[in-house]
Sequence to fold (139 residues):
Amino acid sequence: MTAHREGELVERIINFQSKIQRRVGAALSAHGIGLSEYLVLNQLHLAPNQMLRRTDLAERVGMTPSGITRLLNPMEKIGLIEKEQNPRDARVSLVSLTEPGQRIFEESRTSFEFASAALVEGLDRKQLGTLADLLKIVS
Fold:
């Protein structure tokens, strides 16, 4: 593949990412959260004891540690998550899912799934599988 075609491919991926953020974000806004908040709630929901280190959470949602901190502060204020600070090392502070956070996650998951399905409705099962396999390779 030439550099021109690789650049075009990356531009298409970026455009699709923007489409994902707009459409899925709009569906999630009915629940009072955005896509980033949903991704945090999802990772905490999946975690053992619904708790993760802040640095692990940042990595799992593709954010920097400082970026995840800025995202978590308002989530903590509205009661979706709780943070437990380590006085010796902020990097090992723990983030846990609260009961209201779990409820919002469960309510928003259906909206997320419907919006996601609408984004790829033009693909058949084989194409979806191929796309998923390719994304695993490059991510």
